[in-house]
Amino acid sequence: MFDLEMIKSVYASYPERIAAARKAVGKPLTLAEKILYAHLWDGDATTAHERGKSYVDFAPDRVAMQDATAQMALLQFMQAGKKKAAVPSTVHCDHLIQARIGASADLQEAMNKSSEVFNFLESVSDKYGIGFWKPGAGIIHQVVLENYAFPGGMMIGTDSHTVNAGGLGMVAVGVGGADAVDVMAGMPWELKFPKLIGVKLTGKMNGWTAPKDVILKVAGILTVKGGTGSIVEYFGEGAESLSATGKGTICNMGAEIGATTSTFGYDDSMRRYLKATDREEVVDMADEIAEHLTGDAEVYANPEQYFDQVIEINLDELTPHLNGPFTPDLATPVAEMKEKAAANDWPTDIEWALIGSCTNSSYEDLTRAASIVEDAVSKGVKPKAILGINPGSEQVRYTAERDGLLDTFMKFESAKIFTNACGPCIGQWARAGAEKQEKNSIVHSFNRNFAKRADGNPNTHAFVGSPEMVAAIAISGKLDFNPITDSLTNENGEAVKLAEPTGIELPEKGFDV
């Protein structure tokens, strides 16, 4: 599915273009700078571009579009008079599927209501050589990570969370439909040369802490505006200890701090993920230019000299967070939620807890959340809230079903498996009773939590956390539950504690679909 010749061409130009960029800039380069300078529309760099001021033309390698925004983009592209898209492009049907009853019924309902849109997108894609992912195939960003993203590449997508592909070392940027049309028509893409924020990760996560907690912490530091006009580049031993999908989670939610995009340097976790998703050829090619697919050593040794801002986070000390309500940058350590919820009069009873979306629906995410459910079941604890699951792709869903993860979730009779689509994350959730506009709280592992975002109710307080923390809160039914210290009462009246989550980075039997 991935365009091997395109990737080969991109990598072939890297050594020469990086050498030219280093000469033009006159100092070692960050990863973000390498990717940007390697994708200049005019070829090799002849001068340094001023961060935050210079407007520069770039030549992206790929374009991705979701069904809601692809309609107008393709209508415009049809007017360009081209016989084929100039760069590899894809359309993904994930936004027009409402979550209400469950996967099969909801998918059929979407097909009935939006068949004209889906048929149009498919026929236009077929005519112009654009890849088409039908309804139910998966969420655009998860599908891109599984099939198209590659280290050192540049892509644009007509959705703000295109930045998810930074988990495989790309500079991937969310844009408007007009920008996508320009690139598909063979024209340059203009961007103000970004500023650079470096996030140094030391140590290694443990216990209940998850990659989601890294970006929840960063959001609390930078706020929803702190990343505006900047690329966030993660580095350090802590970054290398994260899985590729964990990196994707962090990059995905970088959109919530206003960042142009976020990215990580090429490492072993990316190699493992690429091989697991049948892209060993990409690994072979990337390994040949590996030195160019991460920042220069001098940059990471003295980051203050090369980044406009530097943040350091020790993963050994990082604890689980919940961010919200009504804004993704209101960061609260789980250990402080009891006090903070009481002080702010946040409802602490939880009726719904939601796992998945493009942010947190990897195989690893599902295994960690399932381990919590399995532990609760084995200890005789029944869930107090409804647990909803939105798999990120059919590949993840099918593999999870094959390996028994979905059966584990369904051990809670209240659990619901929704379609492989955006659903509640983008407001496509027909939640029963939402029209009453009652004050309530929900927890989810999505990215955004602004008022009305999930269910249309302005009084729904949405809190963002990791999948394993969401699962734990679903079991307890309480927003202020801290699984590290708090106990639950099981069916026999006994006080029990949940075990720490355990997960599997990649399926032992491989992915299937």
Describe the protein.
Helix content is 35%, strand content 17%. Strand 14, helix 14 and strand 15 form a beta-alpha-beta unit. The mean pLDDT is 97. The radius of gyration is 22 Å and the shape is globular. It is built from 17 helices and 20 strands. It is an alpha/beta fold. The strands form 6 sheets. The chain has a 5-stranded parallel sheet with strand order 4-3-2-5-6, with helices on both faces.
Report the C-alpha radius of gyration, rounded.
22 Å
Instruction: Give a quick account of the main beta sheet: strands, pairing sense, barrel closure.
Output: 5 strands, parallel
**Coarse morphology:** globular
Broad CATH class of the largest domain: Alpha Beta
Short summary:
The protein has 513 residues and is of the alpha/beta class. The chain is 35% helix and 17% strand. Helix 1 packs across helix 2 and helix 3 (67-78) packs parallel to helix 4 (103-127).
Topology:
Elements: H1 4-25, H2 31-38, E1 55-58, E2 62-66, H3 67-78, E3 89-92, H4 103-127, E4 131-133, H5 140-147, E5 154-157, E6 171-174, H6 177-184, E7 189-192, E8 195-202, H7 211-222, E9 230-235, H8 237-240, H9 244-252, E10 261-264, H10 268-276, H11 280-288, H12 297-301, E11 309-314, E12 321-323, E13 331-333, H13 337-344, E14 350-356, H14 363-378, E15 386-390, H15 394-402, H16 405-409, E16 416-417, E17 440-444, E18 460-464, H17 467-476, E19 488-489, E20 495-496
Parallel strand pairs: 2-3, 2-5, 3-4, 5-6, 8-9, 8-11, 9-10, 14-15, 14-17, 15-16, 17-18
Antiparallel strand pairs: 1-7, 12-13, 19-20
